[in-house]
Amino acid sequence: MDRFTKEALLGAYQKGERGFSAINLAGLHLFEADLRQINLQGSCLDESYMPYGNLSLANLRGASLVRAQLGDINFYGADLSEAVLVGADLGRADLRGANLSQANLEGANLSGADLRQASLIKANLTGVNLSGAKLEGANLANANLNRCNLFRAVGADLTDSCCDRTTILPNGYNYGF
């Protein structure tokens, strides 16, 4: 996996390159970076710092973003399917229409995140903080929500998801729904 510097990535992106599959960006600081429609499929962005960035319509399928700082980031319509976001901070992130199918978000922070119309099919949301998240139209079919905090989350349809007694349910839900 090739190691990229911030300067090399941003320089190539500004010249019109969008394909950066399977590269190493671990620990990179990309505060407010505008990388719309970038292809980072299978790349390593572990412990990267990218708050307030714009990765709308990006391809991050199978990427690793373990403990990445992604607060207030724009992932509108992005493909994060099969991505590893264990312990990542996605507080207040815009994930409208994003594909997070089969993603591993164990222990991630998604408080206040906008997940309207997002696909979270078979996603691992064990121990995730979704307090105050917007979930209208989000597909949570077969998603693991054990130990998940959905306090004050709105629009959640938990019908086909996997919850247990450790799940903090949003207002209006009872165990055994």
Q: What does this protein structure show overall?
A:
This protein is mostly loops. The chain is 5% helix and 2% strand. The chain has one helix at residues 6-14; strands at residues 2-3, 23-24. Strands 1-2 form a two-stranded parallel ribbon. The longest helix has 9 residues, at 6-14. It is elongated. The termini are far apart. The mean pLDDT is 95.
What is the H/E string?
A: EHE
**Unreliably modeled segments:** none
Share of β-strand residues: under 5%
> Whole-number average pLDDT?
95
**Arrangement of strands in the largest sheet:** 1-2
Task: Tell me about the largest β-sheet.
Answer: 2 strands, parallel
Strand elements, count: 2
Total helical elements: 1
> What form results from the Cα inertia axes?
elongated
Radius of gyration: 16 Å
Helix content: under 10%
Distance between the termini: 46 Å
Q: Structural class from helices and strands?
A: little secondary structure
Labels describing this entry:
single chain, little secondary structure, 1 helix, elongated
